[in-house]
Specification:
The chain is mainly α. The protein is 59% helix and 0% strand. The longest helix is centred in the middle third of the chain and has 21 residues. The N and C termini lie far apart (38 Å).
Length: 118
């Protein structure tokens, strides 16, 4: 969604899904333009327990700093979905677009996805 409008936000309320919305705008966004936003949940609270166990296994196999861990946590579900639904080639492209995680993490991540299939 390149432009944010009241109509876009109203449309989001009518469906049941989660999304990351960047409210930054050139010249800023006026607070009065956002009338009501409900059910904002911190992304980490949405991650299920088994997902955290997968992430902990990855963290145990590769040394990451705090910023890298945050990046991996925020992109983990999307990367996993891409890997299984769209294949490794699309996954590689999406992974490459995330700056700051590194190649060794990618190898461990793919290995973790493959282990889930066994």
């Amino acid at each position: 969604m390149s432009k944010l409008s009241k109509q876009n936000i109203d449309a989001l309320v009518k469906v049941n899904f989660s999304a990351r919305i960047d409210f930054s705008a050139e010249g800023g966004i006026k607070i009065e333009e956002i009338e009501r936003i409900e059910n904002i949940v911190e992304e980490q609270n949405n991650i299920e327990e088994h997902t955290f166990s997968e992430l902990n296994n990855i963290f145990n196999n590769v040394r990451l700093n705090k910023k890298q861990k945050e990046l991996l946590i925020s992109h983990f579900l999307s990367l996993k979905e891409t890997y299984f639904l769209k294949g490794e080639k699309v996954f590689n492209h999406e992974y490459a677009s995330i700056k700051g995680i590194g190649r060794s993490t990618k190898k461990i991540l793919i290995a973790s996805f493959e282990d889930r299939l066994k």
